[in-house]
Amino acid sequence: MNQKKGKALLVVLMLLISLIAQVSPAMALGDVVINEANFPDANFREFVKKYDKNNDGVLQQSERDDVDSIDCSEQEIADLAGVEHFTELFFLQCYRNKITKLDVSKNTMLEILVLTSNQITEIDISQNPKLENLHCSKNQLKALDVSNNPKLISLHCSKNQLKSLDVSNNTKLRSLECSDNQLTKLDVSKHPLLERIDVANNQITEINVNQKPKLRQLYCSNNQIAELDVSNNPFLDIFDLDNNQITEIDVSQNPKLRQLYCSNNQLTSLDLSQNSELDHSETRLSNQSYPTPLISKWKDGFEFDLSGIPGVNLADILEVNKLGGNPLPGSASYDPDTGILRIGSDEPVHKLIYRCDVKSPIAEITTMDVVISLIYKAVVRLDPDNGIDPPQVIEESGEIRAWGETYSYALPDCTFAAPTGKAFKAWEVDGNELQPGEHIDAKEYTDIKALWADSSTSDAEATTDSESGTPKETGQSKPEMTPSKSTDSQQTAGKIGTILPWLLLLVLTLLVAGILFIVLRKKKRT
């Protein structure tokens, strides 16, 4: 019986195998059918059909092994699932698609991976130790781990959301682009082979490029770098440090420099005498701004000393103008030998530009403009207007930093001698009469004039208490209501008249009580 059942099962199994063989083409172990299960994305599924050489709808192992390079860029692909079946890939390029995730863990032979301009949020390349070129710019990466990719030569990961990047294990790097991220620091101290560095548009405060003798291009604009030494980069060709906080830069050891961009920094001087290959159309030196304002001193006018500006050689200052390049007011003068700028009180200048010689051998590159802010110590001039005393000029500690800004100044007591027959009346400020102790809004330079009045008129208006020093009203005073003695007597009599009846009643009550006490005592004895 069991033998019959076994034979029956064997017959059924053989029929099934025969049926499958008739319906489906022959498939060897490892063959991959080109269907939705293996290639979910319709566009990528259509793309890989070109590797099906015998057009049987199946990618045999031999067909897949022949594929060592895939370029499926700009194909509207959203999912690259199925690429893991191509294990011999050394080149994969899929830029400008809609890919959000990618698994290349099975593609261990990869040397070049280009994923630029997709929507990838994360990628694991820890299983790709042979990777030499990784270009994943313009994605949505928040982290990138390249610690297991020691052979990397080129790493481009710009325009992502990276807050940190560790390339300490990638000492063979020649090109590193990580601009337009959120990096605050980047250590490239172990990378002597670097030829190109692009860290622009981050929040980096420092970068060390000292041990990079092959460096040719350095882009670090739009950061927060205050110091940068390029003296050990003799082949530097392009140097972009626009929009930083650089106070000085030495390019005398960069004779091959062709393009120099250093606008919007804090340079006070620049020497380009050793840079004869500069292209004037690729050189920007504008909008330098010295960060520390100069503070005025008063010496019959406002004085500012340019000689104290760090890095400035007075001999290199060719001219000094107002902001915008307009000439200084007529009351101003600049002494090129001392660096002293004098400005009169009639037209204060809050920002100036000095133009300095950059000693360039290129005819089109001659000068650099530096903007400096000026701060005025508030100055008041007390005019006695008495024909006796000279005016008194007082330099206050208050600082005027911008147009429209003022300093609160308390008007002093008048110490000027009064003209004959006159007495001090008030201070006149902008047509208003004010008294000592009152506060005014002082400007860079404020005129205050003493007003005098006839002494008789002044006495009639106000007299001064010799003891307290405070003014007291004169003329007929209002009668004060002082209580008289008769009024006091009347008030006292009224009070007595009110109390007396009550006193009499009390005495009478006590008298009656006494009599009753005596009578009761006698009765008790009898």
Give the CATH architecture of the domain at 141-289: Alpha-Beta Horseshoe
Structural class estimated from helices and strands: alpha/beta
Largest sheet entry: 11 strands, parallel
Shape: flat
Number of strands: 32
Can you give a write-up of this model?
The longest helix has 41 residues, at 485-525. Among the domains are: 141-289, Ribonuclease Inhibitor (Leucine-rich repeat, LRR (right-handed beta-alpha superhelix), Alpha-Beta Horseshoe); 294-377, Immunoglobulin-like (Sandwich), CATH 2.60.40; 378-472, no CATH class. 27% of the residues are buried. The chain has helices at residues 2-23, 42-48, 61-65, 455-461, 485-525; strands at residues 32-33, 58-59, 69-71, 91-93, 102-103, 112-114, 123-124, 133-135, 154-156, 175-177, 196-198, 217-219, 238-240, 259-261, 283-284, 288-289, 294-295, 297-298, 302-305, 317-322, 333-335, 340-343, 351-357, 367-383, 392-400, 407-410, 422-429, 432-434, 439-442, 445-454, 463-464, 471-472. The chain is built from five helices and 32 strands. The chain has 526 residues and is of the alpha/beta class. The radius of gyration is 48 Å and the shape is flat. The strands form seven sheets. The protein has an eleven-stranded parallel β-sheet, with no helix packed on it. β24 (367-383) and β25 form a beta hairpin.
